[in-house]
Amino acid sequence: MDFGLSQDQQMLREAIARCLADTCPLDHVRECAEDEASYSEKVQSALSALGLTGMMVPQGHGGLGMTLLDAAVVAEQLAYAVAPVPFLAHHVLVPIAFTQAGSDAQQAEWLPKIASGEVRIAVAIAETVEARSGAGVTCDGEKLNGTALFALDFAGADAFLVADTGGRLHIVRAEAGGLEKIPLTTIDRTRSVGELRFEQVAAEPLADDGGATAARLRDAGRVILAADSIGAGQAMIEKAVDYAGQREQFGRIIGSFQAVKHMCAEMAARHEPCRSLVWYAAHAFDAAPDEAMLAACHAKSHTGEVHRFVARTSTEVHGGMGFTDLLGLHYWFKRIGFDRQILGGPEAVRAEAAVQQGWTRAA
What average pLDDT does this structure show over 159-177? Predict the structure, then answer.
């Protein structure tokens, strides 16, 4: 059986790649990062013109009704260009949440606005994976209290989708009384993350399904983060190979040295199998729900380890230049580091998979 991208998905990948090549050069990424914006209106507008805002919104609500595999294809290209635009939370997780757990009224209110780009919604579900001391959100009737860390796509959000300690999701408007919004600084300056503090904040709950929708969001998020790592890793490998073919040392191109050849070959050998692993995890999310959780865990944990190696090795191939801002290699390096840790590092995700399979007990 052949397993690969469909013709439509290949066209989608090429369209996103062309768009980013035209609108998102590294100098523009650097400008956004230096301004602490973590957001490019120019790039976002160009992607919106391609229908990105509504790609995961059902067609009945004005979207394109695409799959998680389609979203993974897009995520890979966004990471390849280190595009400073919101994607994971607003364009992927939020439509899934409303489609699965939103009431008819909630879907009618929010999904068309998401598809049209009228609103932007951040997602705070980190505490459903690992909760730090003092973090966690409790629900008292229709009021939220507590702290949610690492809200994704934070900057400029009009509302927040928040998971409480029981896994139930709530939609909170950005202007709600008692809500404090604090930007967080992470290693990745191309994406926006924040902290939310709640003190008797009015919220509108989604369906109480025992945390099933929050679990689905974790799976989807892990797959998209893994796809993001693949895009960033691909860029770092290509940059290392190009540099090795140009840099001279001792009167020779460094790519002619056996050690450098081995470094580049090792990166490619570890990186390439990850793509099919992530594609299958994305496919399973929609087509094989019983396998989705384990496939997402495998994809997230394995790509996290592989691309940490790729990031380190690509930097080593560049030598001292790899650590400078001149080449900008650090943008991909830091993006991979963010992908590795958010929604669970490899160790935590593997432990979760082991519990799911009955190999060990939950801590």
Answer: 96
Domains delineated in the chain: 7-116 (1.10.540.10), 121-205 (2.40.110.10), 212-356 (1.20.140.10)
Q: Do the Cβ atoms of 297 and 349 come closer than 8 Å?
A: yes
Q: Output the furthest CA–CA distance in the chain (Å, rounded).
A: 73
Dihedral angle of Cα 167, 169, 175, 179, to the nearest 10 degrees: -10
* 251 burial level (CB within 10 Å; 0-12, 13-18, 19+): exposed
Q: Tell me which amino acid residue 121 is.
A: I
Decide: 310 and 261 in contact? Cβ < 8 Å.
Answer: no
Tokens of 330: 């650090």
Q: Name the residue type at position 197.
A: R
* pLDDT single digits (tens) 198-251: 999 999 999 999 999 999 999 999 999 999 999 999 999 999 999 998 887 888
